[in-house]
Design goal:
Blueprint: H1 3-27, H2 29-80, H3 87-168, H4 173-185, E1 191-195, E2 198-199, H5 208-216, E3 221-222, E4 229-232
Parallel strand pairs: 1-4
Antiparallel strand pairs: 1-2, 3-4
Helix pairs in contact: 1-3, 2-3
Length: 236
């Protein structure tokens, strides 16, 4: 095998490892993003619950005020009964008293319903707060894990990049330019082995004449199907 071809194969090994590490690095934050999205959802639910409690507590105050006002009116109406002179006046006032009692009974029911809903919401809020606390704890741990992992990956990238620069110096500029061009357009695979006349990258047959020339190993050739640089891999 031509020395420069062997160097290209080594370079491709480095580049494929770099590609793998960079893909891993880019996928690292995905779990953190999922956790943050889950946390945002729980925080939004918690805000809605708090808003609901504020809303019904305000309603409770309004209903209690109405109840007190109507209760005062009820007391005044009941005191008037003894001073009424006609049956018609008595019936009208009695109707008013009954309506006040009925309305206040409904207000009492509403106040009790609000209290029950408040208790239920408070329990739900307690659970949501616990979930939010747990999510924040998981996010903190994940951020720490990601920081450590990225530091390790960056160290590997730095070492491989240094190796790549050293290896690239032993390749002629024109060939290196061609290799880089193919690497960027062929998913990182710029050079492929040919076994029994078949390109291992595209699985297409190499024309017999070209394959014979490849076996002579006199120069670096290109696969006519995928345009990658090729070399013969002899099987015993």
């Amino acid at each position: 095998m031509k020395p420069e071809l062997a160097i290209l194969i080594r370079l491709q090994g480095i580049d494929l490892e770099l590609r793998k590490i960079n893909e891993e690095k880019s996928s690292v934050p995905k779990h953190l993003e999922d956790l943050q999205e889950h946390l945002s959802s729980k925080e939004a639910e918690l805000n809605e619950l708090n808003e609901r409690i504020t809303e019904i507590q305000k309603r409770k105050v309004d209903v209690e005020d109405e109840f007190e006002l109507e209760n005062v009116r009820l007391g005044k109406s009941q005191k008037k009964i003894s001073s009424l002179k006609t049956n018609r006046e008595y019936q009208a006032l009695q109707k008013e008293i009954n309506e006040i009692k009925k309305a206040n009974a409904a207000r009492e029911d509403e106040i009790l319903a609000i209290m029950e809903e408040t208790n239920s919401l408070q329990e739900e809020i307690k659970g949501k707060k616990q979930q939010v606390k747990q999510d924040r704890k998981e996010i903190k741990a994940e951020q720490k894990r990601i920081k450590q992992l990225q530091a390790r990956l960056n160290a590997k990238i730095a070492a491989l990049t240094e190796d790549r620069e050293a290896v690239s110096k032993d390749i002629s500029p024109n060939l290196l330019t061609k290799y880089n061009f193919l690497k960027d357009r062929r998913a990182g695979v710029a050079i492929a082995a040919v076994t029994d006349g078949i390109c291992s990258a595209c699985n297409m047959n190499i024309p017999p004449q070209l394959y014979n020339e490849l076996l002579r190993d006199e120069k670096i050739l290109t696969c006519p199907s995928c345009q990658r640089l090729i070399y013969a891999l002899k099987v015993n």
